[in-house]
Structure formats: structure tokens, C-alpha cells
Specification:
mainly beta, 1 helix, disordered N terminus, eight-stranded antiparallel beta barrel, elongated, 204 residues, Porin, 9 strands
């Protein structure tokens, strides 16, 4: 019997995101020093997975990401950072490209150090907004062939100044196949991000 890796993976990710959401809500209600911010950056996206290697001329596609950040302190160095990010992803190949737009919700565990440097990591759920394939014959809507949700793991590092400005780099490693076919092709999203942000300060 073949194990449905995608289904089990989605269950595990949903449990993890739900657990972090509960911690976030509890912390937010108990701590008045919540900070809010905005971010913008560049994406360098491609496809990973065993079946992605068969894509002829596969290469990085450059896009953009932008959105909002909430930083919720838990202890002196540790915070939980939920985000809402519009992300332009996909992949280039010989003769064309796949352009996939997602609304992503990462929940980052954020550890800050003296001097403003930080590391972060956590799960991300993405909701597919649009999907277009462009080649020599024109542009085709391929959204119906792809899964409407995507799960990934984000790992990154950056710097935040005392004024609230900062920059970071992050890699989002796809954990679930984006393909909806039967059988499903093992093709995942892989996105490297680099950008800047500004935190507006806390309430209270």
C-alpha cells in the first residue's frame, strides 16, 4: 500500500501551525509590547523534488514579496512572528515559465541577539491565488492542476536596528507537492527571499 505522504505531511503541518497559533494568541493577550511592521523583498524561486529534475532548463525565477509582520515577545530574546505575505513564485524552464502567486502565512520562532542580529524558523502555509504557464504558444491558466494549499518550512537570519529598520534573508523549503494529479508528481516549491522591513513599534 502506498503511503499518501502529502496527506500525512499536511496533517502534521496543520497541527504545528495550530499549536503555534494557540501560543501566539495566549502571548498576545498577556503581553502589551506587541510590535507591527511591513516588509518587502525579492524572491528567487524554483521547483524542487525528485520529479522537478526532469524539467528541461529549470532555473530560478525572480519575483517579489510584500506583506505585514507582527512581533509578539515571549521572553527577553524570544518572540513569535506571524506574517501575512503576498509572494510571487514559480520556475523558469526552456521556452517558458510557471508563475505562481501565493498568499503565505509563516509563523516564525524568532531569537534575537545583542547587536540586533537574529535567527528565525517555523512553518508556513500558503494559499494559491493564481497560476499561469507561459510558453511559445501563449499563456495558460494552470491553477486547476495545482493544489490550493502549500506547506513549507522557513529558515532565516537578519538584522534589526534600534530605529526599527532591518533586513533579512530566508529560504522556504517546500514540504508538500504542488501537483494535484493522480498519481501526484513530486514537485515542491523552493524560494530564497531577501528583503527589508520596518517595525512601527509596540502598543502600550
Amino acid at each position: 500500500m502506498q503511503i499518501n505522504f502529502k496527506t500525512q505531511n499536511e496533517i502534521n503541518m496543520k497541527k504545528l501551525i495550530l499549536s503555534l497559533a494557540v501560543v501566539t494568541i495566549a502571548t498576545m493577550s498577556a503581553n502589551a509590547q506587541v510590535e507591527f511592521g511591513a516588509k518587502v523583498g525579492a524572491n528567487f524561486a524554483t521547483f524542487s523534488g525528485s520529479d522537478a529534475s526532469s524539467i528541461t532548463g529549470k532555473s530560478m525565477q525572480v519575483g517579489a514579496n510584500f506583506g505585514a509582520i507582527v512581533q509578539i515577545p515571549v521572553s527577553g530574546m524570544f518572540s513569535v512572528n506571524p506574517e501575512l505575505v503576498f509572494s510571487m513564485q514559480g520556475c523558469k524552464f526552456d521556452g517558458g515559465s510557471d508563475k505562481l502567486n501565493y498568499l503565505n502565512i509563516p509563523v516564525m520562532a524568532h531569537v534575537g541577539f545583542n547587536g540586533g542580529f537574529f535567527v528565525e524558523g517555523g512553518p508556513q502555509i500558503g494559499f494559491l491565488v493564481s497560476a499561469k504557464q507561459k510558453d511559445a504558444s501563449g499563456t495558460t491558466d494552470i491553477k486547476e492542476f495545482l493544489n490550493s494549499t502549500d506547506f513549507s518550512l522557513g529558515l532565516g537570519a537578519g538584522f534589526k536596528s534600534k530605529s526599527g529598520f532591518g533586513g533579512n534573508a530566508r529560504v522556504n523549503i517546500g514540504l508538500s507537492s504542488i501537483d494535484k494529479g493522480t498519481p501526484k508528481a513530486k514537485i515542491n516549491n523552493m524560494v530564497i527571499q531577501a528583503g527589508v522591513f520596518y517595525m512601527f513599534g509596540g502598543k502600550g
